[in-house]
Write a structure and sequence with these properties.
The structure is a homodimer of 357-residue chains. The first copy, chain A, folds into three domains: 54 residues, 434 Repressor (Amino-terminal Domain); 132 residues, Response regulator (Rossmann fold); 136 residues, Response regulator (Rossmann fold). Helices cover 43% and strands 18% of the residues of chain A. In chain A, the strands form two sheets. Chain A has a six-stranded parallel sheet, with helices on both faces. A six-stranded mixed sheet of chain A has the order 7-6-8-9-10-12, with helices on both faces. In chain A, strand 8, helix 11 and strand 9 form a beta-alpha-beta unit. In chain A, helix 1 crosses helix 3 and helix 8 runs parallel beside helix 9. The longest helix of chain A has 18 residues. Chain A starts with 12 loop residues before the first helix and ends in an 18-residue tail after the last strand. Chains A and B meet through helix 4, helix 5, strand 2, helix 6 and helix 11 of A and helix 4, helix 5, strand 2, helix 6 and helix 11 of B. The structure holds a DNA duplex (16 and 16 nucleotides).
DNA sequence: ATGAAAGCGCTAACAA
DNA sequence: TTGTTAGCGCTTTCAT
């Protein structure tokens, strides 16, 4: 017995036309809602469409119109809540405008990023939403520029001279984290980050440092910045803590601010290895929220990025350009929300007083 | 100053042809690696391609060949690690074969699922990898059948009479969880699930129950199954615990087995609300692993689904069908790994002995 | 070894 | 009001 034996050719516009006794052009007009078609014929066309289950082939249609209703989205990864939500949002916004979203992941590789972009260019996508691996000055943005592609840059970007950018207001959020930690009395804070994502991480670091120093000039801020990957960061963090512990009690920071999600995980796992508990032994705040952070004990404080706003404004900007909008690129920063949860306390409450209940 | 002023038309095959002084057909042949082209001409074509930066338009190409090198993937959501990894894998496997993956999320809605499928059919995708919202007997599978689409069903499926299926071996994994919990001495266990995903949840529940009862006929297994959504589950779980607590000490289960990820989160958050700590107050194992589970304190035991295997075999099966493979549908079950972490202990170790260190 | 012609499924001018 | 014509960019016979 044949698998998918009913694989008959789908009805084309000509099938509809001949069944309705009109030309293909007329069918096309009916589908486009052109009003100059004689009602009687329109009805015959509609009937034929219904009977044949006809639907336009969007690709063939785009082909002729020389404008494809496809938006490309390139994300560094699909595995995180942030980018997962981002893709979901973008998908839905593209659909609302009758476009299809084609998403691809660069897997944190700039080479792959450019490759994907080239493929999207081959597809002649109407526009691209690019969340660059590194920042707005990578090869991908250059490629887009060189090929006259329409696009918007999001997330790990600040501003660009060729493309609109939309990202979270990292600096403001970090300033708020600084206010919170300083306010609770922390005077020795470790900041953990990934240097590769230059622009954003720098904004977060500076935003934090500036405000912290303003509020408490005596604050000590240590920084552990891994260059490229997460595993080296784990090692560096371990070394760091070994070193400060070697200097005896009091040399250890009382709080950690992680500038990105994986850093938060690494910090937590390092705490675990040392049997430190939040917030008694050390406080923790992370940039980027995740569902699990509110159900662990203790719940982890986090900076929540406004995914919907970022997606919304990115698509708005993109479609404005697609529809011919001119003018200099605009750089948007969307405000974050800082959720201070139980992982943050005041220093000097003594080590691990055990579980309260 | 014009935005994207360099938006010149991209070079077409005809541009290459005229520059090389040959016909479009010849260019096409060169690109296809046909050997009958005079080397000299081939070289001229290659040069022209190089100079113009020519690349074929894959859509136009597919159009003519009447077979589009596009694979559709429909996932219930993008936000979870599991489906994120799945999409990443599928993307990479499709690429390896020169296909493009177009992923869409049904957002846990069967109506939307069918809608997306129809759109993919409009696109004339070569095949579809569908992770149904509910199970293999939904409207989406019917649609695929009715329209002679080629596809593979994954994840929330057991077997189907029309499509190949690939999923995790839920029953075997659950049996192993049962062995572990019974082995540790648990005799009163709560199982938490979502009834909607009928097939899979049933397999997990039965696999667990059967083995547990075999090993310890006196075991008491309570079940809290919400029908559709997570929030009702939260309420039901709260009620359940209120009820058993009302009956005094000893009426409370000593372990919880959650049949899906969100259930694990709900269980954890409920524990938190009651100031119960794992594993001293209660043990916890969840179906589905996540990165954070190994860094929390305690680390959460979990069933790890073999994402790569599922994706790999799904694509294998799909391409076999695309290439005309016949024969009855096959149902694959991929073995899971059960990671027993600190959230599981033995019952009766007394309540919250505080932090060891 | 090569190119002309036909056409995938559709739409946009233009004529009728 | 409608149909004819002419492609979009490509590939594939099929003559030459």
């Amino acid at each position: 017995m044949a698998h998918r034996q009913d694989q008959q050719r789908r009805a084309s516009i000509h099938d509809v036309a001949s069944r309705a006794g009109v030309s293909a052009a007329t069918v096309s007009k009916v589908m486009a809602g052109v009003t100059t078609v004689k009602p009687e014929n329109a009805q015959r066309v509609l009937d034929a469409i219904e009977q044949l289950g006809y639907r336009v082939d969007p690709l063939a249609s785009d082909m002729r119109r020389a404008k494809r209703r496809i938006i490309g989205a390139i994300m560094p990864e699909f595995e995180s809540e942030f980018f997962g939500q981002m893709v979901t949002q973008l998908e839905s916004l593209a659909e609302q405008r009758g476009y299809t979203l084609v998403a691809a992941s660069s897997r944190e590789s700039e080479a792959r990023e450019t490759e994907i972009l080239a493929r999207m260019h081959d597809w002649r996508v109407a526009g691209v939403v690019l969340a660059p691996v590194r920042n707005e000055h990578g090869p991908a943005a250059d490629f887009m520029k060189a090929n006259g592609m329409t696009g918007v840059l999001i997330d790990r970007v600040l501003s660009d001279d060729a493309f609109d950018t939309v990202s979270a207001d990292s600096a403001a959020a970090s300033a708020e984290v600084a206010r919170e930690l300083i306010g609770k009395g922390h005077r020795h804070i470790l900041v953990v980050g990934l240097g590769e994502q230059a622009a954003t991480v720098r904004a977060r670091l500076d935003g934090f440092r500036t405000t912290a120093l303003k509020l408490a000039p005596d604050v000590r801020i240590d920084v552990v910045l891994a260059e490229t990957d997460v595993e080296p960061l784990r090692a560096q963090l371990r070394d760091y803590f070994d070193r400060v512990e070697g200097k005896g009690r009091g040399a250890r920071p009382t709080a950690v601010y992680s500038l990105f999600l994986k850093g938060t995980l690494v910090a937590l796992s390092e705490f675990r290895r040392r049997f430190w508990h939040c917030p008694n032994d050390i406080s923790l705040v992370g940039f980027d929220d995740a569902e699990w952070m509110q159900v662990t004990w203790p719940a982890i404080a986090a900076v929540v990025q406004p995914v919907r706003q970022i997606a919304g404004h990115a698509m708005e900007a993109l479609f404005a350009r697609i529809e011919g909008g001119e003018g200099p690129p605009v750089a948007r920063l969307e405000p974050c929300q800082v959720l201070m949860r139980e992982s943050v306390g005041s220093p000097g409450n003594g080590p691990h007083p055990g579980n309260r209940q």
